[in-house]
Amino acid sequence: FSIDHMQRIGDTLKVEVSYAKGCEGTFHVIWDGAIMESYPLQATLFLKFHATDCPNNFIQDETVRKVITIDLVGFIGDDQLVKETIFHVANASSLQGVTCEGNCDKTVSNG
Prior knowledge:
By secondary structure, the protein is mainly beta.
């Protein structure tokens, strides 16, 4: 899948993704609890696609778009921390070792 667009509105993060038509599954948000103690604070969230039905004959050139909505306070659990933090979102399904090919990292600021 790919991360196509993101927007932060207050404490909500909306992530638009696209994936091959014919593949079904669920998206999971992962956070390791790490906060980069820079100014402003920063944290990386990982978005992983768990495909449950992706047939061999899926249509590679046709995509499905979906918006994943993340309640940052509900997910992180600390209202003040959310307000002070810039969140980065990485595509955990496309990470290979320590390198990432393509546009799989996006950054969303508080503004």
